[in-house]
Write a structure and sequence with these properties.
Structural class: mainly beta
Order of helices and strands: EEEEEEEHEEHEE
Bound molecules: zinc ion
Distance between the termini: 68 Å
Number of strands: 11
Helix content: 10-25%
Length: 139
């Protein structure tokens, strides 16, 4: 039940102080909590924009994300059949042989590793994997 606090205390839900006279939820044998108190929300993600997103189309897929150069794979016209976000998107791309690659030391792009290898072998680009496992591509 909701009563006026008779004593100052610490709310066990949010760990903040309860002032005398404020509304508290109380039942016998339980510590009083702020009336309607709920745990503070975990810090919201920095933005509602996912850091990685893959839209799967009928004949291809489209990679977008925070700080990532968008990449089209195949024909991306038509309807989105499925959208994968963050971890799910990452697993999908790894499965497809893609890795996050640093291009010209300035931008990131998900690239097909086999494609990088063949382009590097053909002399179209320079590619190397650094000690942390990140592939760098220089055009
Ligand atoms: Zn509280």
């Amino acid at each position: 039940m909701v009563i006026k606090a008779k004593f100052a205390s610490i709310c066990p839900v949010c760990s903040k102080g309860i002032e005398v006279g404020s509304n508290v939820e109380w039942s016998k044998g339980q510590k009083a909590t702020h009336a309607g108190c709920s745990k503070p929300q975990k810090k919201a993600t920095k933005s509602s924009t996912p850091s990685l997103r893959v839209d799967i189309m009928e004949k291809g897929f489209h990679i977008t994300g925070y700080n990532i150069t968008p990449v089209m794979n195949g024909n991306i016209t038509g309807f989105i059949q499925k959208t994968l976000i963050n971890d799910e998107a990452k697993s999908f791309l790894l499965e497809k042989g893609y890795e996050l690659v640093k291009i010209d030391s300035v931008r990131f792009e998900w690239c097909n590793v086999d494609r990088i290898k063949s382009d590097a072998e053909a002399g179209k680009i320079k590619a190397k994997r650094d000690s942390k496992g990140l592939i760098h591509v220089y055009n």
